[in-house]
Amino acid sequence: CKQHGWNTTVYDFTWGGKQIYQRLGLDPSDPSLKTFGVEDKAITSTVDYVFFCDATLADNEKYYNSYVELAKVFNKPGVKYYYLVAYYNCNSDPGSIAKVEQILDKFRVQGYDVELVRWGQLAQDLVQGTYKLQGSSYKYSKTTFQVTQNTGNRHPNPLSGYMCVQTAFTQVTGLSAVGQDYSFCENALYGS
What we know:
Number of strands: 3
Helix content: 25-40%
Order of helices and strands: HHEHEHHEHH
Strand order of the largest sheet: 1-2-3
Low-confidence stretches: none
Mean pLDDT: 77
Distance between the termini: 26 Å
Number of helices: 7
Radius of gyration: 17 Å
Shape: globular
């Protein structure tokens, strides 16, 4: 965004080990998990684009209700919502995009403007060889886009984050993200 002269602020609401419905106070087994407070609402009412993602999509109704509640929090008129389909979803559940589409169709019927960002599918296509980068001889593996020290092999590494941001930028703006610096992807400080 800076390269285009845009003044952009990114707010990151990431909750490791918890899912959106829990952080919105929708978990009947433990409502104390709610972490969205008054200070967050001062920020959320100014946001133009909301990107959301959950690692597990086992209960469509629960996630649909979460997204409706999320839309109440991020409620600026004209806000646009994007669901990030993660590599983990595509890798562990080939039907995940169809599941997300079912949830988002219900969300759209309620009048919300929401699109899929399929960065995880791009990573999956590279791993499976369905898609190849022109002029590249690199062989992608299942762990190319994951933190390899993690025994669960489901957390994205910096390369995944880079792909996610580039795909999201292109989807929102319609502009190419080619040429963005990615040297940080190999920095051991950020994991591998």
